[in-house]
Protein 1
Amino acid sequence: MSQSFLEVKGLTKKFGGLTAVNDATFSMERHQIIGLIGPNGAGKTTLLRLMTGILKPDSGSVRFMGQEMAGKNTWDIVNKGMVSTFQNMRPFRRLPIIANVMVACLCPRALKRGEWVKKIEAKAMDALEFAGISDMAKENASILSQGDLKRLEVARAIATEPELLLLDEPFGGLSPAETDLMAKSIKRLHKGGRFGRLHSEGPAMIIVEHKLHWLMMIATRIIVLSFGTIIADGTPDEIIKNPTVIEAYLGQGGN
Amino acid sequence: MKLILFYLRKLLAVVRNEVLVLPSRVAVIIFFLFILLLPSFTDDVYILRVFTLTCIFAIFAASWDLLCGFTGQLNFGHALFFGVGAYSAALMNIHWQLAPWFSIPLGALVAVAAGLTVGIPALRLKGTYLALTTMAFPIIVIGLIFTFPGFTGGELGISGIQKLAPTRIEEYYVISILMLVLCTIMWKITDSNTGIIFHAIREDEIAVRASGVNTTRYKLLAFCLSGFFAGLAGGLYAHFMRIVGPSTLDVSLSFQVVIWSIFGGAATIYGPVAAVFFLYPTLELFHLIQDYRTIVFAIVVLLVLIFMPDGLFRWLREKVEEECPRCKVRNVAWRKTCRVCTASLE
């Protein structure tokens, strides 16, 4: 078994005349946390959406654990173990928070892996507990604050017990203290283990984020996108010093 | 003997602690008793007939709620399922001499097939586009019926269908008990894990997909379930009225069911059922003022929709019950503390 965990090759998506993602190629290992950064409109979210099948790529391939994912239905991809959160949170607003997570617990993958779990609610509760919003489990999702919605997104994603977790701006709109907490949760999740009835394999992660300070603390490798093209790929230390990246972020002459 | 007493005491405790504490549950019990005991108060054929039809339409309205209120697949052609169920039951009864016990469920299965026919194109549509598309289907079936008058009876419909039961009271009991059972089943479905997914699909379909749930399967399931229950209602209607005409596929019937459901409160199951039991007999009562019947009806419905946009019965429920802010258990509105966690409700 020499095949890599995730291999993205030549992924391209055009919206009319705009090339949102242009020939994106990278691969990752099972244990990695990749930070995906880039200026606004660089195509980070589009890249994640192409990988999870919410958008269909124009060309290119996504091989995940030896299987082709491009062009498959989102639910099939999730059930293979690749799940993403939404940047603009999409909770089921008129359902209680616990029911939001129960939907994810009801997907075939989670059901199969949690056969010994009698109560779906109990498992959903553990996911909420991990995310830190279990005390509000019975409230409607519409009352949640921005930060708590982010946690709900994370809870919903980990309830499917993924192998690869794609987080789209998990720190967006969070206060520094909340960001710290979220960063710690993500690290803890990556270590893996058991959170109540919820089993974490210690998923590999791709994190899209603008708060570089926190991202550098978590990520072991950074990929930089600009205008849909990957312009740099390396460890956080290399990336900070990379002149192309500095130019893309700050324009020419910046330092 | 001791065992029986033990269980009786247990039952009484359940009734006292779980049922009598909430007005809505008491109302449900009273409703069940009313339905079951109605023939002992009156054996007037007209009243029994009105309430039997009410029961049939209650099943029909609840099935609309299952599809549109819960799953959010707006269907403005729900009469399709009713009409297809009614016509299939009638045709099987007339041509193959099948007894009602076979023709009604088989008719409902044909309605399930109709549900699939509508459901598959509906997978690609949303909201108003879906509503307009679904509206076309009953009209297409009416066209088919007019094209083959020899087989379907054309505009005159099919008459001489076998009676459901020998007497009116027996017919009433068959239909009313079936109504109670079917509505309980529908309520149970919406209360189950499947129901949660239905709710979630209405809220945000993409997010449900991203949670790993095959939404296509669940949407088709919703169409089939809804078609099945509406088809059963149609079959019962055919064997009760003993005549089936194109009116069972009418646009007005499709809209009637929307009005009933919205009036009572969509996405509740009990709302549409209660609304039918309120509106249908009321409309019959308005026979006394025949000339103004429709306008009075319209005014009542409009007033309810303006002042209680969530539906009459949900509004009533909110008035007499409130949720405990701490443990989310429902309490009677005039209680000072929660009956479970004793938190203050002031």
Protein 2
Amino acid sequence: MSEVIKEPRNGCALHGALQTVQEIKGVVPVIHANAGCGVIHYLANKGTSGGNSSYSGLSIPGTAIQERHVIFGGASRLREQIKNTIKVVKGDLYVILNSCESAMVGDDVDAMTREIVEQGEPVLDTLVAGFNGGPYYGYEHVMADIFRTIDGVKPSEKKTDPYLVNILGIIPGKDPYWQGNLEEIKRILEGIGLKVNVFFGPYGGVRDLINAKNAALTINFSRWGELPARILEEWYEIPILQRPSLPLGTEQVLDLATAVAETIHIDEERIKSFFGNEEVYENDLLLRAREDLIEYDNSQTAVLVGDEEQVIRLGRFLNDFLGKEIKAVILTDALKTDEEHVTDNQELLKEITDSIYITSDQKKIEDIIRSEKPEVIFGSSLEKRIANRLEIPVVETSYPVFEKLILNKADAGIRGTISFMEEYITVVNQYEAEKRKQLLSYVKGEKGGKLWQEQSQKRSYSKKLTLVTQSQTKESLSARM
Amino acid sequence: MAEKIGKHIAIYGKGGIGKSTTTSNISAALAEAGYKVIQIGCDPKSDSTNTLRGNNYLPTVLDSLREGNKIHLEDISVKGFGGVLCIESGGPVPGVGCAGRGINASVSLLQELHLFEEFKPDFVLYDVLGDVVCGGFAVPIRDGITDRAYVVSSSDFMALYAANNLFKAINKYAPTGGAKLGGVIANSMKPGYHREIVEDFVEKTGTSIAGYVNRSIDVQQSELYGKTVIEAKPKSAQADIYRNLAKYIAGNEDLVVPNPLGAAELKEWARDWGDRIYDIENGVVSVAEAI
């Protein structure tokens, strides 16, 4: 039986594929869909943290198919659109994204693509019908199709570079800090002597896609990169290092480096020197936050809401590094039954907490948070409503994040540890400050004023401020609300 | 929806079973009897009304839609034998696009053009492509476009299988205002056990036979001349068969919601008939005994 899902935070497969390819420099997406698909994607990203990249939303070429294209087939309309796009939009690679309509009608898009490729143009296509799945499906399948076909479109000799690694598993946009995180992982891996294909963002691009086959290792940081990683393994014999999440904190980063060193020879001295410096840097900065940590962080309990990768990354860090009690984790991306992926993080999640939930239904998420009574939430902007009701802060770590621009800030790696701590302490501090402000304004207000007077009749003025205790005022405040 | 003008009848059946021939002859017989008739071919092959209009060219509704120009009724319809207004929905070339969506768009367009208000028909016959393969082909029996459907079937298993599928569609849509079944038109009837197979099928599914149409050389000859039997051989016995069928359909108000057989049930039923036919063909039992 079907049920209502309140405020689902995940889009469709086309949405995921689109936000993936639009972040690869040099790629021009061409949407073979009705006009609304691209615009909805644009609007969904417009209101959230990272914004849209150059070829996105309103500027994405599309076939804007109409009823006659459904009835008679839209392949010739697509041919026209690809040819026109190549004429007016400069790109190194044109990726055709086929939508629900194209899938249902059965347009022979492959034939159209072959025709254009035979004319020497770099075009490839992928079928990501929205109804096939969520954005994770779109990410995996578009990347897998690119790896399958890029060599036919942009041929090059395979020349394995023993120090080159591919980074997969981080979906642009679905992790609000994806850009910064990729940069940080690249910085760390380069710091220990490797070269990195990040694919996305300013350091990525079509060149990375072409070079993917030359890598010595693919590091996949979530279950969602399994399919493209497997394609690279099957086609080009590139081994896969499957990690449950991006690392957070020096310890986890070192663990990653050790795991990579099992496949790729890395100079030990270089690792030591790199991590030595990083540790000094991290300790130096985090030391400055010790007073804040002592004042606000003790005995705080938390609930984590987000994609599995984010929940594991933050959960382990909060547990191990900050000694926080994780009352529950809510996975918004994982499927209740996932037979397509081999990744199984159950044990790891159980180490974080016994209460593991899988849902993207905001009603259920709010009910879980309400019953778990945490003192802080690590989640998305959608959790702000329940947080306001429970009078607790939300540290925004998962999609969607509204009213905040996040460009290259990280919450993974080593520098990401620092910015995560900055964000966490800032949010908690600001929240406490706001609460104090509210209490003070209440105490000085009409009703609070009476309380103030009553108290002052019984006690001396010098004791007044301390006697209007926080709990009394909080009680009155909640009664008023 | 505004009150329907005329009786709207959908005629379904497996491909090649004689739907168009039967529908055209019913239309011709109704026209001959003085009724105003529209026949709408809902098949991408767009050959439903060929014998009514002497195989003359008729642009299809969807051809006109593809051109994108403003469409007028006179561009997509032509009067054929007895003044039957012939319309072909048309569709994409085989293997391309979505014919089901085409039928949907075509029927909507005809309604937008006020076809029925303009022509004021007594009967509108929709000749619909083969099996009800997807939602698009169920359009004529859904949403109150027609209130009755007939299915043309021979005694062949696959034809009855297609009929059973139509029953499933009617069963699904009838409770929400879809068409009900008027009956089964038993086509290509030959001597022997053929009638009995169809009769047994209608009994099992709680339906009835609207009429029997025997296999006849008159039908084949008339079609080769590009005419209906009513027009080409008006005095033949076959023409009378169609006249009687038309008369029955015109007057029949006994509409039912069929009880389609389940997959296993249908298979079992067919197997049982297989055994009986084997016995008949090998002289184990007589036809009467087998039935």
